[in-house]
Amino acid sequence: MAEVVITKENFEQEVIKSDKPVLVDFWAAWCGPCRMLMPMVDAVAEERTDIKVGKVNVDEQPELAAQFGIQTIPTLMVFKNGEVTNTSIGAIGKNQILALL
């Protein structure tokens, strides 16, 4: 499943009300570690049909970044039933991403 671009307008529908766990990647285009993490997040999105993967560009969605206290990117958050169940800060490997889920 391809990633979903998450905005403040669709956050509730795509993340909070999702019937699947959601891996949300908070990132920015200028962030080197974010670019390192992106292929792993993309691979997880393609391989795992039982989850949804969303991306929040913190430069375009500062309200969402502030709402979740994002101070360092990349930050990955896992939401289940509308609640944050896991968080990881910094670039990590694919197996570590899978372990978050």
Structural class by helix and strand composition: alpha/beta
CATH C-level label: Alpha Beta
Residue share in β-strands: 25-35%
Uncertain residue ranges: none
Biggest β-sheet: strands ordered side by side in the sheet: 1-3-2-4-5
Shape type: globular
Order of helices and strands: EHEHEHEEH
Number of helices: 4
3D structure, described in words:
- The protein is α/β, with parallel strands linked by helices and 101 residues long.
- The chain has a single domain (4-100), classed as Glutaredoxin (3-Layer(aba) Sandwich), CATH 3.40.30.10.
- 35% of the residues lie in helices and 27% in strands.
- The protein has four helices and five strands.
- The chain has a five-stranded mixed sheet with strand order 1-3-2-4-5.
- The protein is globular, with a radius of gyration of 12 Å.
Give a brief rundown of this model:
This protein is of the alpha/beta class and 101 residues long. The protein is built from four helices and five strands; from the N terminus they run E-H-E-H-E-H-E-E-H.
Descriptive terms for the model:
35% helix, Glutaredoxin, alpha/beta, 101 residues
Describe how the helices and strands are arranged.
Blueprint (H helix, E strand, L loop, with lengths): L3 E2 L5 H6 L5 E6 L4 H16 L4 E6 L4 H6 L7 E6 L2 E7 L4 H7 L1
Parallel strand pairs: 1-3, 2-3
Antiparallel strand pairs: 2-4, 4-5
